[in-house]
Design goal:
This protein is an alpha/beta fold. Helix content is about 35%, strand content about 25%. It has eight helices and eight strands. Strands 1, 2, 3, 4, 5, 6, 7 and 8 form an eight-stranded mixed sheet that branches. A hairpin with a 4-residue loop joins strand 2 and strand 3. Helix 4 crosses helix 5. The longest helix is centred in the middle third of the chain and has 13 residues. The protein is globular. It starts with a strand and ends with a helix. The mean pLDDT is about 90.
């Protein structure tokens, strides 16, 4: 399958966290395309602060308490905005539900309501534990000339994936838990190796 990348113009993005620039990267794969976003500071140092964030409509937009995604998104933007000399970027990947899509994620949610954890739910509907692909991130970082990053993550799989093409130093990103996401966080820690 042939893969192509298109890059949009840059635009200003004033937010409640600070002043950013925004750019979109369209990833074309055969009959499908995904429009990923990069929100970044005007200045990027030789080793910027980077958050690789996979889309979570329920958490990022609706404030779902079932996960920690929305909290991590906000904390990442705050930290990047307050690192003016280092600079940084948030790469927003359109890979909802660890890559299974919104429709399937809601079906997985229904199974979680019956007591399945996130991994069991994904497997029950025919998916791997994590279906995401980070290939586009290599293209994005190359576009900005970034070869060394301070990655805001608790996920060692992201560190490993990105270490194939840039130098990665991990920075933890911990948000408060709640009664609705306790099992979710325990699954991430105990079954997926997240550093929580």
């Amino acid at each position: 399958m042939q893969r192509g990348i298109q890059v949009s113009s840059r635009a200003k993005l004033p937010t409640k966290f600070g002043e950013f620039l925004i750019q979109s990267f369209r990833e074309n794969r055969g009959d499908f395309s995904w429009d990923h976003l990069v929100v970044f500071t005007p200045h990027l140092s030789s080793a910027p602060l980077v958050r690789l964030h996979s889309e979570c409509l329920t958490g990022d937009v609706f404030g779902s308490q079932k996960c920690d995604c929305g909290g991590e998104l906000e904390l990442a933007l705050q930290r990047i905005a307050h690192a003016p000399t280092q600079g940084g970027m948030l790469i927003y990947l359109r890979q909802e539900g660890r890559g299974i899509g919104l429709f399937n994620k809601i079906n997985a949610y229904a199974l979680q309501d019956q007591g399945y954890d996130t991994i069991e739910a994904n497997r029950a509907i025919g998916f791997k534990d994590d279906e995401r692909d980070y290939g586009i991130v290599k293209d994005i970082l190359e576009h900005y000339g970034v070869t060394h990053i301070h990655l805001l993550t608790n996920n060692p799989q992201k560190v490993q994936a990105l270490s194939a093409f840039v130098k990665v130093e991990r920075c933890s990103i911990i948000v408060p838990s709640n009664c609705h996401n306790q099992q979710y966080l325990e699954t991430k820690k105990n079954r997926m190796g997240h550093l929580l």
